[in-house]
Write a structure and sequence with these properties.
Layout (H helix, E strand, L loop, with lengths): L17 H43 L4 H9 L4 H7 L8 E4 L3 E7 L5 E7 L6 H12 L10 E6 L4 E6 L6 H6 L7 H20 L5 E2 L8 E3 L5 E3 L6 E2 L5 E3 L12 H6 L1 E3 H17 L14 H8 L21 H17 L10 H19 L1
Antiparallel strand pairs: 1-2, 2-3, 3-5, 4-5, 6-9, 7-8, 10-11
């Protein structure tokens, strides 16, 4: 009482506090208008500093070889392909298949690649191109031919593939002045088994090649085998089997159930692998004129086991340092026995490609130990 300057709430019968009312109002204004603006300015400043630092680091970083490759080959025009192949000159022709021709191409940057040009006049060639793109963009393995990029429009479709300087397995088996020793043949078949194992079991969906043969096996500079030409491959669903009416494989390498009923499964690739294994070590094609009617390559090999095995193997393997010896015969018996198991008439009687790879690895290891 008696304090005229006392202020507070009206119920106390004193004057209103003007300064006290103003302070909360100023704080509210600060929180509502000033603080958000201040936070925004600080955030923008931090973001600018971070972007500047990132740009400087990116500018200073030297590009890796694979980065350069991706940039150079991300987009390739028809005219660049035309120049790389010298207008698709016959001298650059590597091979020719049902749906396509493969040319060696040298691009302006010095990069050498294999250019697979699809013949659009042939029925199913566009489908083959689409299947190969679909498969190769989803699978990647050291024993599969790598696709670098593609060139596609209404009138032209091509795949740019990793170049294999040593050509196809077919060339090494049947051309003059080319020879593969036992170690190389076992190694090549091991590479093929690894590729198939990855295709069948290496990711979420199985991929069946459907056309395994020497012409589709390519060799790099170190004679490592790469499986190529997946233009008729099939991506299987959870049932791991499918059926088609149009048969597009190669006679002699097709599994019986595929050739007669169009049934496709990973066991069909195992059958083709077994035929290929026989061919690589006998240097006889499954379509050779000696095989007529019921007398097939499988029967020929099967009837030679075990006593006449040395009479059917490639004679080139029996000359020089590799000729003769119990170790050589034992190796052939193991290989041909495996090939016969792979080519059983019924799919359920065949081995899985995983077991095939294990058996081959064991054969190679044992033969190396016995001959060292």
């Amino acid at each position: 009482m008696g304090n005229e300057e006392l202020c507070g709430a009206s119920r106390f019968h004193v004057m209103e506090c003007k300064e006290g009312k103003g302070k909360p109002r100023n704080i509210a204004i600060f929180l509502k208008y000033v603080l958000p603006s201040l936070v925004s300015v600080v955030f923008v400043a931090i973001l600018l500093v971070w972007l500047l630092t990132f740009w400087k680091r990116n500018k200073q970083r030297k590009p890796r070889a694979e980065d350069t490759l991706d940039v150079e080959l991300k987009r390739i025009s028809y005219y660049e392909i035309l120049g790389a192949t010298e207008d698709f000159d016959e001298s650059n022709l590597i091979g020719r298949g049902s749906f396509s021709s493969v040319f060696k191409g040298t691009f302006a940057a010095g990069l050498v690649a294999a250019i697979k040009v699809f013949n659009l006049d042939v029925q199913d060639s566009i489908r083959s191109f689409e299947v190969e793109c679909q498969v190769l963009r989803n699978v990647r393995h050291r024993n599969l031919v790598k696709v670098i990029t593609s060139c596609s429009n209404l009138d032209f479709k091509a795949l740019i593939l990793e170049y294999m300087p040593n050509g196809s397995l077919h060339k090494w088996l049947y051309s003059h002045n080319y020879f593969l020793d036992i170690y190389q043949r076992l190694g090549i078949m091991m590479d093929i088994a690894n590729a198939l194992e990855y295709m069948h079991h290496g990711h979420s969906f199985p991929v069946v090649h459907c056309d395994l043969k020497p012409g589709n096996i390519l060799l790099d500079e170190n004679m490592v085998a790469h499986v190529g030409d997946v233009g008729i491959a099939k991506l299987l669903d959870k049932d791991k089997t499918t059926k088609q009416t149009k048969i597009m494989g190669t006679v002699g390498y097709m599994a019986p159930e595929y050739g007669s009923a169009g049934i496709i499964s990973s066991m069909g690739d195992v059958y083709s692998f077994g035929i290929l294994l026989m061919e690589v070590f006998t240097r006889k094609k499954p379509t050779d004129e000696m095989f007529q009617g019921d007398f097939t390559m499988r029967r020929w090999v099967s009837e030679s086991l075990p006593d006449a095995i040395m009479q059917i193997v490639d004679s080139n393997l029996l000359t020089g340092e590799e000729g003769g010896g119990q170790e050589i015969e034992e190796c052939f018996l193991m290989v041909m026995g495996l090939a016969v198991e792979c080519t059983a008439d019924f799919p359920e009687e065949r081995m899985s490609i995983e077991d095939v790879a294990v058996r081959l690895k064991h054969t190679l290891h044992k033969f190396t130990q016995n001959t060292s």
